[in-house]
Each structure stands twice: as structure tokens, then as C-alpha cells.
Amino acid sequence: MPDTTTDNRLEVAIAATRKAGRKTLEWFRAADLTVTQKDDQSPVTAADLAAEKILKSELLTAFPDDSFLGEETGSHQGSSEFEWVVDPIDGTKSFIHGVPLFATLVACRRNGEGIVGVIYVPALNEIAYAAVGKGAWYEQGGHKPIPARI
Fold first, then answer.
1. Which runs of consecutive H residues, i.e. helices, occur in 25-103?
2. CA-to-CA distance for 35 and 145, rounded, in angstroms?
3. Domain hosting residue 58, numbered range
4. CB atoms within 10 A of CB 4
5. pLDDT for 119-148, tens place per residue?
6. Whole-number average pLDDT of the chain
7. 14 within 8 A of 129, measured Cβ to Cβ
């Protein structure tokens, strides 16, 4: 019997990751990009915050009982066995310096075990994703996904 829980979460995660990643491009290589420092002295931008807001909204709208842990805004405790873990811009320093090697990352855990993962590199329009029982896939430039080999 297919695991519709994982299928649904993967589908929503891919769509949310793409939407948030595309949002970051509004600030990519922008001359007026504002950079501030977090308590740990790592950089954060308006793009980080906007992308995380999208991720939180999309994921918790689809799965309102789930928990959420974001790198920029912290956590939201849900009542289900699922938790979303996100990094809106992994590679913020690259992003700040106009290097296209940054990604939007989303993972879903069930009782602490990873079941879904998505990596989207918006500046290159590349995405890789995997889910328990579904394998790992890579897609470039909107072409048909191909199985990822490990």
C-alpha cells in the first residue's frame, strides 16, 4: 500500500522549497541587500527571513499539526509526530557575495527520523529530493527528473 503521508509531504515540500527559493532571487545580487548579524555572528538577510516565512506558511498550512524548526525564526511546537526543519538560504555568505551556490533546504522528520528532504539551488534552477521508499531524484532546468545515483 502506498505511503500517501510521505507522498503528500514530499509534494508539498518540493512546491514550498521552489516558491521560497525563487523568492530569494529577488534579492540575489541586489545592490541594496541589507545584511545583519545574528547572535552567533552569522549573517542574515531579508531574503532569508522572507523565504523562511514562505516555508513556514506553506508547510504549516498544509500540515497544521506539525512542528516547525527554522534557522532564522526558531521553532513552533505542533501536536503531530512530524517536524519540518528548514534553512531558507544555506550558503548565506555565497548569496551575499553574488555566488550562485546557495540553496533552500527542507526536511521532514517523523519521530526524529528523516522521511523527506529537498535541496533547491534557485540561481541554477536545480533541485534534488528524496523520500523514504521513493528514492532520490535530481532535476535541472525544469527537465524530467532523473534518479540520483549514490
1. 46-62, 92-96
2. 35
3. 4-147
4. 8
5. 999 999 999 999 999 999 999 988 999 999
6. 95
7. yes
